[in-house]
Amino acid sequence: MNKKRLNNILPNLLMIVIIIVAFYIYRKYDYNYFSKGILEKGRTEFSRDSNVKYSKDRSYKIENKVSNDAMFYREVTVRKNTPYRVTCMVRTENVVGNENDTM
């Protein structure tokens, strides 16, 4: 392969790699306008999960290495004296409380 042709291919190849990496990061960390809330930083990992999910959409995943108050939340605008229904599906795995934790 001559050098001129290689110089034409490399920028395109680099752009494809950048797009693939950006797409992967977006898919893993896109929280659909939800925010993450934690008590102590560095103890919790937030991600999206394509393997364990309730519907066709990816689930939100919170993993605590040690006890920590962690959540996903979203602020919404509401009207006074208007009823609203909020629903969610929660799945837990290997949840163990500590003596000093309150539920």
From TrEMBL:
Keywords: Membrane, Transmembrane, Transmembrane helix. The chain crosses the membrane at residues 6-26. The keyword Transmembrane helix applies. This is Uncharacterized protein.
